[in-house]
Amino acid sequence: MSVRIYGNRLLHTLPGQETRPTLARVREALFNIWQGTIEGCRWLDLCAGSGSMGAEALCRGAAIAVGIEQSSRACAIVEQNWRQIAKPDQAFQVLRGDVVKRLVSLSGQTFDRIYFDPPYASKLYEPVLSAIAQFGLLAPDGELAIEQGSSHSEFEVGGLEMIRQKQYGKTTLRFYRQHKV
């Protein structure tokens, strides 16, 4: 199976249901919302799957893309996809492992845009949002977008505030930023 992204570029995905690439209309909507903020940004892709969101960010000029993915097979696909997309002046890194544990290793770094798309039925939402807030991974003017099934509710996490929500069929995007005091 494959996915097409910005510029009609073809990405590889794992066969079957091991990963669930973000729908094209959701991906397009997200990048329309974040239009003008991707060029030169530091991008963090959590539960990266095929890496389509990070690849799209690299295509649109992100300076750095970091992805975290549990599956070693998926990490190999992300690495392959990002390698074919990245320009010489762009950096990328793919980290394999449990997303909450891997976030600890990023402590001290900040990201302008964070995209988080775990399996919808997982119990990762609150621990990951808490870790992002605890380790200060979101840049002061940065935004975090989480993808959820439409039946999920929003999360209250100290240090982060929800600033908008968009519905696309059975998919919801919720956007967070650092709580301004």
The structural domain count equals: 1
The CATH homologous superfamily corresponds to Vaccinia Virus protein VP39
What are the low-pLDDT stretches, counting only 5+ consecutive residues below 50? none
Number of strands: 9
Largest sheet: 7 strands, mixed
Structural class: alpha/beta
EC number: 2.1.1.171
Keywords: Methyltransferase, Transferase
GO molecular function: 16S rRNA (guanine(966)-N(2))-methyltransferase activity; nucleic acid binding
InterPro entries: DNA_methylase_N6_adenine_CS, RNA_MeTrfase_RsmD, SAM-dependent_MTases_sf
Summarize the structure in short:
The chain is α/β, with parallel strands linked by helices and 181 residues long.
Per-chain topology:
Elements: E1 2-5, E2 9-12, H1 24-33, E3 42-46, H2 52-59, E4 64-69, H3 72-85, E5 91-96, H4 99-104, E6 111-116, H5 125-134, E7 138-149, E8 160-168, E9 171-178
Parallel strand pairs: 3-4, 3-6, 4-5, 6-7
Antiparallel strand pairs: 1-2, 7-9, 8-9
Helix pairs in contact: 2-3
